[in-house]
Design goal:
mainly alpha, 74% helix
Length: 282
């Protein structure tokens, strides 16, 4: 040992007031640092070991106050502190790496989706020449206002014989009517995204846990509950309408709800007609 005084003797000197608590903490820290091989720290290198000791240092102060002489020496007490502390530190570091991995994995999926969307819209789109019934198409667009991009509005507005700014104002009016619902949908989407991260974390922890161990069973329960909650949230989101109601569209267009109903019924009938024709041709 490099330290000339055993830790128990240092504690006795502290109890007699010969050294301060700060000095005792420093001696203990140096003892643990110098006797790297004694504590068998999971094959850590010196840098990892130093990071661990910096994390452990605040616990040394509490250990001094909590130690009670019940037969085990203070040296054995500190040895136990380092041993069990290293297990906790390793678990925390593992959890940190797992969470980081989960976030990067989920981010990679998001980036891939965004990249695919970018490829789909990379080529300039031609403008629409004309539509047979502009009023019906306008009603249909307003019903699906949530999915309209500025680029699409640029291309469709000439065919509808309506100024782009006016079309934008109509859509913004619908958004104001549905503001509260939009906020609920956005909040739920964020919660689903967070729950998706948690499920990835639980799944990774489950793979790392020893089979039949208490931690394995705990992670299995957490993953099952997390997946059920995620599925429940997704079902709830699926049931939340992201399209405007016929009454809201009628309010924006200053028209009767029955007129909007009739337009949409006509569109559905045309769609059914084209679908039946396509089936016959096949």
């Amino acid at each position: 040992m490099k330290d000339s005084l055993p830790l128990t003797e240092l504690l006795n000197r502290y109890s007699k007031g010969l050294i301060s608590k700060k000095d005792l903490e420093g001696h203990i820290f140096k003892f643990i640092l110098d006797n790297y091989q004694q504590f068998h720290p999971y094959g850590w290198n010196k840098e990892d070991y130093m990071d661990y000791l910096c994390w452990l240092y605040p616990r040394i102060s509490r250990a001094i106050e909590n130690y009670q002489d019940t037969g085990a020496s203070f040296d054995a007490y500190i040895n136990s502190l380092v041993h069990w502390g290293s297990k906790e530190y390793r678990a925390l570091e593992t959890d940190h790496h797992i969470a980081e991995y989960a976030c990067w994995k989920a981010k990679a999926l998001d980036d891939a989706a965004c990249h695919e969307e970018g490829d789909a819209y990379s080529e300039p789109k031609p403008a629409f020449n004309s539509v047979s019934n502009p009023r019906q198409i306008l009603v249909l667009l307003l019903k699906s206002y949530h999915y309209l991009s500025p680029d699409f509005l640029d291309r469709i507005s000439p065919a509808l014989n309506i100024d782009k700014e006016k079309l934008g104002q109509l859509i913004e009016g619908l958004r104001m009517l549905r503001l509260r619902r939009e906020e609920e949908i956005r909040e739920l989407q964020e919660r689903i995204h967070s729950q998706f991260y948690r499920c990835i974390v639980f799944e990774k922890k489950l793979k790392l846990a020893l089979p039949n161990s208490s931690r394995h069973e705990k992670m299995k329960r957490c993953l099952t509950r997390g997946q059920k909650r995620l599925e429940s949230m997704r079902k709830r989101l699926a049931g939340m309408k992201t399209v405007a109601s016929n009454r809201q569209v009628a309010q924006i267009l200053e028209s009767a709800k029955g007129t909007i109903d009739a337009h949409l019924y006509s569109i559905k009938a045309k769609g059914k007609k084209y679908e039946d024709k396509s089936v016959k041709e096949e």
